[in-house]
Design brief:
Blueprint: H1 8-11, E1 15-19, E2 28-32, E3 35-41, E4 47-51, E5 56-58, E6 60-63, E7 66-69, E8 90-93, E9 97-99, H2 103-110, H3 116-119, E10 136-140, E11 145-155, E12 166-176, E13 179-185, E14 193-204, E15 207-216, H4 223-243, H5 263-274
Antiparallel strand pairs: 1-7, 2-3, 3-4, 4-5, 6-7, 8-15, 9-15, 10-11, 11-12, 12-13, 13-14, 14-15
């Protein structure tokens, strides 16, 4: 096998390379960790992925509406999403977004509430409700995951199904270096959470593809409108992300000045450092 520059943690991780709905019998080219790979459906309609230079078949899994692969020897399983199994949830893949920045920058932005009023104005936030209230950070599953719980934010349009402004509760979950999810108050059933996952495919250290997938409790809204709502949000984020410098996420303490609102970002950076992740960072 040709030399791969990624650190061992990232190399032995599962990464999403496509929504399952995009798979065709004509192979599609993409990149993963600086490697050219190709993927698609074989003659029996089973998904495959292949490292082009080495002509090597890669392991694949179809999970959470996406195709996953691993360039090294998989060290663990794909993170479970228990809610995805609930029969009344709709799985919606929201397409693929190429973003000229590192994978950890995209994850970090996803974990941040402070930008809601300024980037997603009058949707996920609005002035004067700009303050991020104190929330709790926990390591779970023996340190394999980082969670932020008890996060609250006032949102003018928390979801497509929201008919009014809503004090929205959030839980944020980092389930893998480039696998992150949020759980937020479901407007239709306030006792339950809508789940939005963001799977980030590190193409190179400074260019990525983001694969947002939603697991929603909403049997009213048309699928196209739900996807369009999420795409609007993500395109607003992309403008911010592509302007951040450096593109690689700084991991050294004090590289960027944290505030109370940034505690999850600080926890994510520390967690990456502790796991020896350097790909897409300045480490
Ligand atoms: Fe955002």
């Amino acid at each position: 096998m040709t030399q791969i520059t990624a650190d061992e943690t990232i190399l032995s991780d599962w990464h999403v390379i496509s929504p399952l709905s995009h798979l065709r019998t004509t192979p599609t080219d993409t990149m993963l960790l600086d490697r050219h790979i190709t993927f698609g459906l074989d003659a029996r309609d089973n998904p495959f992925a292949c490292d082009v230079a080495d002509r090597r078949a890669l392991p694949v899994r179809a999970r959470h509406g996406c195709l996953w692969t691993c360039l090294g020897t998989p060290a663990g399983d794909i993170p479970a999403i228990d809610e995805a199994l609930e029969p009344d949830r709709r799985l919606l893949d929201c397409g693929v977004f190429t973003v000229r920045t590192s994978a950890p920058r995209i994850v970090e932005n996803f974990l941040d509430m402070a930008h809601f009023p300024f980037v997603h104005t009058n949707i996920l936030g609005a002035e004067p409700n700009t303050e991020v209230a104190r929330y709790t950070i926990e390591l779970r599953d023996g340190g394999k995951e980082v969670w932020a719980t008890d996060c609250h934010f006032f949102q003018p349009q928390a979801a497509l199904s929201a008919t009014d402004g809503l004090d929205t509760e959030y839980l944020y979950r980092v389930a893998g270096p480039f696998v992150t999810l949020l759980y937020k108050t479901c407007p239709a059933q306030p006792g339950r959470f809508d789940v939005i996952a963001l799977f980030v495919q590190p193409m190179t250290q400074e260019c990525s593809r983001a694969h947002p997938v939603m697991f929603l409790i909403d049997d009213v809204s048309p699928q196209a409108n739900l996807i369009e709502f999420q795409q609007t949000i993500f395109l607003q984020d992309r403008i911010i992300l592509e302007n951040q410098r450096p593109r690689r996420l700084p991991l050294s303490a004090g590289a960027e000045i944290p505030t109370v609102a940034d505690r999850m970002s600080v926890a994510y950076r520390r967690w990456l450092r502790d796991r020896g992740v350097s790909y897409g960072t300045t480490a």
